Inverse folding.
């Protein structure tokens, strides 16, 4: 199963076997959901851009929809209709409204503040003691960067971090996730009302004003969009930083090379994204008509799960894919941010924060080391997000 402990810790041997045996195989989850996994690069890239594969769960098979199974839990919280669950033209309308606030110019203006936070957080790490680099560095860094962009007040950020972690930690409907969704939904409603009273220079104020003006967003769309930006933007970059540091520590030759040649940082970030993607699998897609993927017939309604991590290790696209090489020239061809109309809206912000964080760690923590053997790490129990739950290191 995709969600057993061995697969969570290291999915790549299994992915290699699946690629070699045909590239499209049925998989079953503990929750009772099932689908067909795409593992080859060319098939994955094509599937991510194919309009016949819908992101709308209403196109799921009847047994998925029975008793609500397979519908996003967010739907039952009023937060389920957003960029990851809609198709064009609805998706195009929603994305166009928000993407104007994620431009290179706007995001590049955040760089100095992010770099100052990196330095401050690294200065605060106790020397010679064990620290959790995710909780003590990656999480507060991305939390501050994302909340600055969106307009989440500083006083609310601790609660927000706890709720978002619970929301993405598992794809099964345990007690923690529904409770966190309810709390997060209530918080988003309060935040929208606060922005209506006192708007600021931030994304949530802007899209709230657009909804009030009747431009494009309805009230449910507004709430769901803010929910998606809060959760998806936070987890992706935290995973990039945590996995990136872990991978470099497991490859001391590459870490040493990056310290010697800091000009390789941009390429190193792309190679780290390729080597171990923080978004291991894209969210579900559903065939709206009979089609083929990699030469395999796919009937209408079939659930499709694109394994981004598997595609990024396809030897047909990347020579020696299981070798980390920060000088690799074609690493930017990875699919870690997706492809096509659903390409990650926050990719630029993730790269910006990831470069600042990894660059700071490499430059300022020359003695950094794992505090526990790799086999003792526990990994996130998520269908989409990949990364260790904790990253104990000694500074």
């Amino acid at each position: 199963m995709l969600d057993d402990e061995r697969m969570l810790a290291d999915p790549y041997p299994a992915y290699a076997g699946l690629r070699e045996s045909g590239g499209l195989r049925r998989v079953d989850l503990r929750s009772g959901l099932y689908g067909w996994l795409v593992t080859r690069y060319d098939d994955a890239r094509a599937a991510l851009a194919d309009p016949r594969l819908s992101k709308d769960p209403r196109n799921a098979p009847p047994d998925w929809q029975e008793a609500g199974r397979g519908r996003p839990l967010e739907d039952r919280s009023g937060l389920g209709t957003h960029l990851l669950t809609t198709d064009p033209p609805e998706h195009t309308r929603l994305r166009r409204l928000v993407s104007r606030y994620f431009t290179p110019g706007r995001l590049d203006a955040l760089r100095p503040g992010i770099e100052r936070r990196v330095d401050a957080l690294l200065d605060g790490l106790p020397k010679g003691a064990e620290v959790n680099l995710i909780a003590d560095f990656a999480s507060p860094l991305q939390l501050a960067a994302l909340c600055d962009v969106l307009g989440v007040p500083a006083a609310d950020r601790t609660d927000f971090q706890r709720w978002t972690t619970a929301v993405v930690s598992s794809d099964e409907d345990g007690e923690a996730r529904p409770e966190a969704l309810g709390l997060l939904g209530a918080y988003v409603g309060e935040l929208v009302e606060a922005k209506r009273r006192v708007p600021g220079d931030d994304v949530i104020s802007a899209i709230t004003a657009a909804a009030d003006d009747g431009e494009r967003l309805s009230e449910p769309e507004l709430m769901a969009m803010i929910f998606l930006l809060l959760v998806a933007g936070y987890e992706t970059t935290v995973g990039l930083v945590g996995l990136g540091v872990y991978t470099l520590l497991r490859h001391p030759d590459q870490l040493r090379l990056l310290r010697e040649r800091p000009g390789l940082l941009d390429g190193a970030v792309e190679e780290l994204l390729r080597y171990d993607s923080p978004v291991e699998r894209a969210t579900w897609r559903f065939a709206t008509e009979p089609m083929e993927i990699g030469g395999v017939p796919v009937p209408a309604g079939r659930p499709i799960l694109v394994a981004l991590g598997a595609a990024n290790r396809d030897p047909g696209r990347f020579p020696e894919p299981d070798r980390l090489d920060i000088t690799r020239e074609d690493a930017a061809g990875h699919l870690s941010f997706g492809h096509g109309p659903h390409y990650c809206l926050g990719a630029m912000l993730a790269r910006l924060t990831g470069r600042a964080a990894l660059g700071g760690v490499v430059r300022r923590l020359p003695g950094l080391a794992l505090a526990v053997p790799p086999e003792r790490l526990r990994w996130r129990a998520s269908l989409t997000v990949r990364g260790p739950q904790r990253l104990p290191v000694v500074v």
User: Anything to note?
Assistant: Residues 5-394 form a domain with the Cytochrome p450 fold (CATH 1.10.630.10). Strands lie at 24-28, 34-38, 53-54, 130-132, 285-287, 291-293, 296-298, 303-306, 369-370, 392-394.
